[in-house]
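Thread: Newbie trying to understand structure tokens

Hi all, I'm a second-year student working on a class project, and my supervisor (Dr. K.) asked me to get a predicted structure for one chain before our next meeting. I've only ever worked with sequences, so writing a 3D structure as a token string is new to me. If someone could post the tokens and maybe explain what I'm looking at, I'd be very grateful. Here's the chain:
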Amino acid sequence: MEKLPLSEVIEKLVRGINAAANLMDNSTGVDGLHLNGDVAPWGELRTGGQFEELLVDFDEALEWARVLSRHDNK
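---
Reply by user tm_fold:
Sure, no problem. This is what the structure looks like when written as tokens:
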């Protein structure tokens, strides 16, 4: 992995987080997570859900990505 300037690393992280959020916005959840054949809906896995500990860090990172995106667009 090549060494990049911090600004480029942040840009890549923001794009990656936004890509994952887009995937989540366009799907219903995770199949196979509960090992019982049921789909685990994203609402159960995100902040405020029954299993929020799985993605609470992601949700916080997404908020930071949105802040950084707004800052870059000014």
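A couple of things are worth pointing out once you decode it. The chain has one domain: 6-72. The chain has three helices and two strands. Feel free to ask follow-ups in this thread.
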